[in-house]
Design brief:
This protein has 499 residues and is an alpha/beta fold. It has 20 helices and 18 strands. The chain is elongated and about 85 Å long. The N and C termini lie far apart (74 Å). 45% of the residues are buried. The protein binds zinc ion (ZN).
Length: 499
């Protein structure tokens, strides 16, 4: 019996799969049992070709059993352990140390990158087994500390390693560099829009959701993109969380600590946004975990999609169901929404005239309200700039690098404050902690109560205002939330009702 282990993914977790191979005499054939998925069934051809390529004579009726039998096996990452299991059954490998091997085989025997190596690395570490992965996946594995892993180019190379002909080089573990995020869209290049920039800074500092309402061409998309450049670097734990999700779908990772920025088009389906599908994958809301999920032209999104975002926005995770059970993906995103003020886009514009009927505007406004909007902390107008503002070359806006420094400082204050609750930012604060920890002075409390009545704020709205006030105070380096912080936070709740 060979001692080759592969893995299969259940959500973001890798489970060990034992490859058992039995061969009886007869014409050459391979059968795979143990709930193999489509990609696993197709591995017969790839495995046969790769084995022939390295000179293995294929003979007999080969039965491959993937154990345990009750878990469905997905993906081509079982190619490598199946090939090794067959070689072992043919008596070509001798005694080999127990290990986990994953990789998709090319017809020429080369190993191709696969998804799921980060969960596999966690499993290998837990079981204290060596892990062999395609060399192209080495970068991801290197970010998981304390795992004995090796990157290999081909089946032939791994066979040589097992036969003791060559000594494998372990993948050296690396620490993610705290490099400043690549700033592709700089706030310094965005003219005017002081309020929007301030709101973006607050959103980045406390990880608060943001809605930008403005005419086409007012720069909403640029502002959303610029937010990516002022976010604080991922912490160690956040980095692992994002690595796990990305590895599950096979998105290459870089060794930096940049937060994800995922723009979603309004034609996107619920499955692509929230996850699921026949081969169960995380959606954009999980790929954007700990980063930005950007929904441009928000009012054009299908109602099913926006409705299905409610739970993941509230809970910070999403439960995706399929026939065999459910899996949980993280979804703690900074949601940025952008929308026009009316169907024609000119409502409130100082120069261009709105051509929409009052009925059309009413209908449109309804799309801009409702349950998702209740979960948006900062709501602001982004007016189109006048010709004079556009031609103001004296406009010396702050650069993203400078803003980012303030954001990092404010985030550090939050990390220290919430460490005992294992939270990292103000937006994450659950309801019971809002009441317990965000205490206002008597005057400030009275001011907020007055305004909440006038603005008809819901309970949820009220605690969102409190969390934003806390972030504004943190940006100012203030220990206490003052009336001015609450007043500014309230301004971002009433912004879009003003047009
Ligand atoms: Zn209009």
């Amino acid at each position: 019996m060979s001692s080759i282990l592969g893995v299969t993914l259940v959500g973001m977790e890798a489970l060990p799969v034992e490859i058992e191979v039995g061969i009886v005499s007869g014409l050459f054939s391979i059968s795979i049992v143990g709930m193999p998925g489509k990609a696993v069934r197709e591995s017969k051809d790839r495995v046969s070709a790769a084995l022939r390529e390295i000179g293995v004579t294929l003979k007999g009726k080969v039965a491959v059993n993937l154990a345990p039998a009750d878990i469905p096996k997905e993906g081509a990452l079982l190619d490598l352990p199946i090939a090794l299991g067959m070689m072992s059954a043919y008596g070509l490998l001798g005694e080999i140390p127990k290990s986990i091997c994953i990789g998709e085989l090319g017809l020429d025997g080369r190993l191709k990158r696969v998804r799921g190596v980060v969960p596999a690395a966690f499993l290998a570490r837990k079981l204290d087994l060596p892990l062999f992965v395609p060399r192209e996946n080495s970068g991801e594995v290197a970010l998981v500390k304390g795992v004995k892993a090796y990157g290999v180019d081909s089946l032939a190379e791994l066979v040589q390693i097992f036969l003791g002909e060559i000594q494998p080089e372990p993948i050296e573990s690396i620490t993610a560099q705290d490099l400043p995020a690549a700033i592709e869209t700089d706030f310094a290049d965005i003219k005017g829009q002081a309020t929007a920039k301030r709101a973006a800074e607050i959103a980045a500092a406390g990880h608060h959701n943001l809605l930008l309402v403005g005419s086409p061409g007012s720069g909403k998309t640029m502002i959303a993109k610029a937010i990516a450049g002022i976010l604080p670097p991922l912490t160690d734990e956040e980095l692992i969380e994002t690595l796990l999700v990305r590895s599950t779908v096979g998105i290459p990772v870089n060794p930096g600590r940049e937060r994800p920025f995922r723009p979603v088009h309004f034609s996107a389906s619920t499955v692509s946004v929230c996850g699921g599908g026949s081969n169960l994958h995380p959606g954009e809301v999980s790929l954007a975990h700990r980063g930005v999920l950007f929904l441009d032209e928000f009012t054009e999104f299908h109602r099913d999609v926006t409705e299905s975002l409610r739970a993941p926005l509230e809970d910070g995770y999403i439960v995706v169901s399929r026939a065999a059970g459910t899996v949980k993906y993280p979804s703690r995103v900074l949601l940025v929404l952008a929308a026009n003020p009316c169907p024609c886009g000119n409502l409130g514009d100082p120069v261009l005239k709105c051509t929409c009927s009052p009925y059309a505007i009413e209908r449109y406004k309804r799309k801009l309200s409702g349950p998702i909007l209740d979960r948006i902390d900062l709501q602001i107008n982004v007016p189109r700039l006048t010709a004079e503002e556009l031609l103001n070359f004296q406009d010396s806006s702050e650069s993203s690098a400078v803003i980012r420094e303030r954001v990092i400082k404010a985030r550090k204050i939050q990390e220290d404050r919430w460490a005992e609750y294992k939270l990292v930012c103000n937006a994450e604060l659950p309801e019971k902690l809002v009441k317990k920890c965000l205490i206002l002075s008597e005057d400030t409390r009275k001011f907020l109560a007055d305004m909440a009545g006038k603005l008809n704020l819901s309970g949820r709205g009220l605690s969102r205002v409190l969390k934003v006030s806390r972030t504004i105070a943190d940006l100012a380096g203030e220990e206490n939330i003052l009336t001015q912080h609450v007043a500014e936070a309230l301004m971002y709740r009433q912004g879009i009702t003003a047009f």
